[in-house]
Design a protein that fits this description.
With 424 residues, this protein is α/β, with parallel strands linked by helices. 49% of the residues lie in helices and 10% in strands. Helix 2 crosses helix 13.
């Protein structure tokens, strides 16, 4: 029997649908995003209320564009602008307009409140559809890279030395500029600063801000040290180091993968529902145990109370577990780390130490029950699976914005895109 092939004829005119909407499939992600965004309250979006300059793009369209791009693993503003010409779904979202990359980047930086509001409204929509049932949460964290140079960390002493060097260099450049102005008699004076001088002045300002931040952190560190000493515990604080590219990021340790200059991104995932992210947070603190209550605080009370939380051993803290159960009635489950026996050289004298030991034994009994084992398996599926999807499928490994507030804005957008991808 002779082989058969599909006829490929490039000479005959190829007719396409007249209406661009007919080019987009009925089950395309863009259609779902548009339907959801149309139901969201976008009054918290930043807009140019003066009306000056060029006409601005509608916030709903820009929000839809960013959600779709992040849900498809595109994070660069220049690449998103390019998609508005190449991708049919993006052209449909933008109604065949093409916002430039600067407009996209500015909208992303300034609309953290909008992303947070839309994130909460999507969860309420999921609850109405029966896809969100907050009651049992799986909380997990991962280290994501910052938009910073890992070789630009400096201690307070190094910053002060660099500040003195920059001050001396600026003084020298000003003297050279003044001498050049006096030599150029009869010519018009230039108001523009020399490029080298302008760069050094920017560096001086960056060093000044870094020193102020490091002094604030040292004062906070000293206060924490005094609190620990009052409780009979020793502080393990190390010498503070500040990054000049992104002063808010930190050097975080990853298990079996060295260190990363970045942030600790946290999520809380609904175990009983469709596995949507219901709460999130970002911190430069590498200790997960100190972040559990912060993640739970971000949960909207409209979704209902949390009764059980399952985490991994990195969140092990008998004191935190006791406070959550006593103040909010939340039971914490985690597999305890192997430790030395309580009968060893370490003695449990204070009431706080006895309380921590009691909570450790109680949680160990909880996690060993069939229900505790089920929760642990679900955490591995939904929480670790969510991070696997974000980092591997979407390809989000590194933040593009700088500063803790803007990084939190971008993480909110990533979680929003993840939820809509799951809903689709």
């Amino acid at each position: 029997m002779p082989e058969r092939y599909v006829v490929i004829d490039r000479q005959t005119p190829m007719l396409l649908p007249v209406d661009l909407r007919d080019w987009v499939a009925e089950n395309d992600l863009a259609r779902l995003i548009l339907e959801v965004v149309e139901q969201c309250d976008i009054r918290s979006a930043w807009t140019n209320e003066r009306g000056s300059g060029s006409a601005q793009y509608p916030p709903g369209m820009m929000l839809s564009l960013l959600i779709y791009a992040y849900a498809r693993g595109v994070f660069s503003s220049r690449r998103i602008e390019q998609l508005s010409y190449e991708n049919l779904s993006v052209r449909y979202l933008c109604a065949n307009t093409h916002p430039d990359h600067d407009t996209i980047a500015k909208f992303r930086r300034q609309n953290g409140a909008l992303f947070k509001s839309c994130f909460g409204q999507v969860l309420l929509l999921g609850r109405e559809l029966g896809l969100v049932r907050v009651g049992k949460l799986a909380v997990d964290g991962t280290r994501l890279g910052a938009n910073a140079n890992r070789h630009r960390f400096s201690t307070r002493e190094q910053l002060e030395q660099e500040q003195a060097r920059v001050e001396a260099l600026i003084e020298q450049l000003l003297q050279e500029a003044e001498a050049a102005d006096q030599a150029e008699e009869g010519q018009e004076e230039s108001e523009a600063l020399p490029a080298e001088l302008a760069n050094e002045q920017k560096r001086r300002q960056a060093i000044k801000e870094a020193l102020e931040r490091i002094k604030q952190r040292e004062a906070q560190q000293q206060a924490e040290k005094e609190e620990l000493e009052k409780a009979g515990r020793k502080s393990q604080a190390k010498e503070l180091r500040m990054n000049l590219t992104d002063p808010d990021c930190g050097i975080l340790h990853r298990k079996g993968a060295g260190t990363v200059v970045g942030y600790n991104a946290q999520i809380g995932v609904d175990i009983q529902g469709a596995g949507l992210i219901v709460t999130n947070n970002v911190s430069a603190n590498g200790c997960d145990a100190q972040l559990l209550d912060q993640v739970l605080e971000q949960l909207s009370p409209e979704l209902g109370p949390v009764k059980e939380v399952i985490v991994d051993c990195g969140y092990e803290s008998g004191r935190k577990a006791y406070e959550l159960e006593k103040n909010f009635g939340i039971k914490v489950y985690y597999p305890p780390r192997p430790k030395l026996s309580d009968k060893g050289s370490k003695r449990w004298h204070s009431r706080g130490q006895r309380l921590v030991r009691h909570m450790r034994h109680l949680i160990k009994k909880r996690i060993d029950t069939p229900h505790g084992q089920w929760l642990q398996r679900r955490r591995q599926t939904v929480a670790e699976g969510a991070f696997g999807f974000i980092k591997q499928t979407l390809g989000f490994q590194r933040f593009t914005l700088r500063g803790l507030e803007k990084v939190q804005t971008e993480w909110q957008l990533v979680c929003l895109a993840f939820n809509l991808r799951k809903l689709a």
